[in-house]
Amino acid sequence: MASFSAVAYYIPYSSSFFPNKPPKFNNRRRNPVVKFTCKAKNGETSPGKLDRRDVLLGLGGLYSTTSLSANPMALADPALPDFKDCIDATQPNKTLINCCPPAPSRIKDYVPSATTVNTRISAQSVEVGSDYYNKYTEAIQKMKNLSPSDPRNFRQQANVHCAYCDGGYTLKGSPKLLYEVHNSWLFFPWHRWYVYFFEKICQKLIHDDTFTLPFWNWDAPQGMQIPSIYNSNVISPLYDCFRNPDHLPPTVINLEWSYGDVQVDPKIQIEYNLAIMYTQMITQSKTPNDFFGKAYRAGDDITTLDGAGTIEQTPHNHVHSWTGTAVDQSNPIDMGALYSAARDPIFFAHCCAI
Ligand SMILES: [Cu+2]
User: Ranges for the Tyrosinase copper-binding domain (predicted)?
Assistant: First the structure.
């Protein structure tokens, strides 16, 4: 257990997604580290240049598929959490919370074994009472029914997000800095692995290794509201009472929402949302770092990095705060706050969309 507390150092960068007024569009212009070209001629890539395919390959394949021997981004120790000691995380109201997972006897490196690819489906297309819905709710209910000390228990899994995002670990090699998986290029890969293992637990519990989680397609008009499966009835394991009551279906999501925004005509909101997506995906994503986020390496202070990529900032953060409760703006819970976001099952559909 913790031998010291997070507040001994600092309150995490942001313990809610948007405690105050969220940033608007990412209008910053950074000096591009890597230039972006639409397509390399004859399959060539030249040092310092990437084509769009490489951007879409993701961080895992990005630097191995291009000639980036001169790219300093690949040449530093990675930012890692120090697993020696898990400390209390900090809620938006500054109170501490213990999100630490059960201490493993040993940590084993995971080796992926899957040879097939299962396609996720949109949450909006799932009908309440369908076979898929029954499987999904069975998996989540079984996770919630597991012993509270079982690391696969739903609350334990929610706490993983809390521990890694809200000050549960220090940065390895820098005991005065906290580790954080938001606001940098860690955002995409960390969340994708998190969802991957959550999905594996679901598969195991319902004895179906083809099961996939649904994704919340908030970037398409038909997905721009809370999918009905999460709001069907209050005893469903997919339901969460800590969502903003003003934003339940059929309210259309505002992908750039912040406290105080008024609802506009749904058709206009959808047009705004599509424009926001275009802006974040294309106009503002001139470089890989714009899109994925800034490099976060050993020794870096995440509180001063200001490194979130375009999609993490908007719409990702805004979907969180739009969905989470607005009852107490100074102390948002569930989807509206880092420490509690994954307590809402819709969190995993949201993360499957990024
Ligand atoms: Cu997160």
Answer: 182-199
